[in-house]
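Record filed here:
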Amino acid sequence: IQPIGNIFTPGFVIIYAVVSVAVIILSLWISTVLTNSSRLYSADYETSLEKDLASIDYKDAEMDQITAKMTDIIKRNIESSSMSVYILSGQNELSVAYSSNNMQNKISLANPMFDTLLNINKSIVLASQIEKEHDLSVVQSELEEFFKVNKADALFILNEGHNIFGIITLGRKISGDEYKDYDYNVFVKLYSY
């Protein structure tokens, strides 16, 4: 790479040193920008998610504030586009308690899909699991319709035995990617709290 002859050697060394330093500074700047970017998501978010959820003050905040904080944490860590919380509002019916995407629909618990999911001990279902897991084939069409109507890709049934008192849904990931086995395993671990 060095020019032929001794006349250009000192100039070449200076130019090479300046360009090298500029490239190193540029790469450090790019690394800092990418590390601090809120648009990038870690594929290994479990520790961060647990820490962020543990930092929520459940005593002094209103329910809407707590849910908004949880939604922000879920968006930041899991990259979910939305979150909706449904609670038991009447006989066999769930109504929206919170929705980051303005969902206002009601969910009937008379849908046999819920009994089937509880019978197979499946309180968490991802849209990406529907065609992959044999146990879900019995309610495949109901689940697909549920996810479509509720604009969701993840379903958490909040239950005690066969009594459902709420549901949480997460929207599609912001990146457009589907929830994967890693996500499911993190959800199962956190659900046990």
Observations:
- The mean pLDDT is 86.
- The longest helix spans residues 9-36.
- Residues 7 and 111 are 85 Å apart (CA to CA).
